[in-house]
Amino acid sequence: MGDAEAAAIRAARGNWVNDHLETYLASGGTRGHIMDVSAVGGRALTTHCLIKCVGRKSGKVYIRPLIYGNFGGEIVVVASKGGADTHPEWYLNILASKTIGVQIATQAFEATWRKPEGEERHQVWTYMTHLYPPYLTYQRSTGRQIPLVMFALARPIEIFSADQSQ
């Protein structure tokens, strides 16, 4: 799948993603943490976190909802961009940051990040594709290796709000 096809899928789901983010933020995390994504090939009880990072070019704060897993005590997200041939902007922003914000339900944390390598990456990828099987299709549709990002939660911070995001 090329970038244009992936963009069309994201555009069709765009309102859903924005609605999801608004629900998560407006509820303080009491709603939006667990979502039914079985209609798109996922699981009925799929966990979502919010990540907050600063744009590496714009300097603006961005908040994005993402499917996550907990692997060995670290939070894992997948930079799939629906199988597009380019990385998502949020991933590139993370690479330019030492720490980011992560909100899980009603708790938020400053977090450091890393990319798993080698056998650990294989194990984490297998785990994440079990949580959300469409990642397998996304990987087959692109020539890039879809990145995984693991977050170690550090100190607690205030939960995210809509006025913090662009």
TrEMBL record:
PANTHER family: DEAZAFLAVIN-DEPENDENT NITROREDUCTASE, F420H(2)-DEPENDENT QUINONE REDUCTASE RV1261C. It comes from the Bacteria. InterPro entries: F420H2_quin_Rdtase, Split_barrel_FMN-bd. The keyword Cell inner membrane does not apply. This is Nitroreductase. One of its GO terms (cellular component) is plasma membrane. Belongs to the F420H(2)-dependent quinone reductase family. One of its GO terms (molecular function) is coenzyme F420 binding. NCBIfam families: hi_GC_TIGR00026 (TIGR00026). It catalyses: oxidized coenzyme F420-(gamma-L-Glu)(n) + a quinol + H(+) = reduced coenzyme F420-(gamma-L-Glu)(n) + a quinone. Keywords: Oxidoreductase.
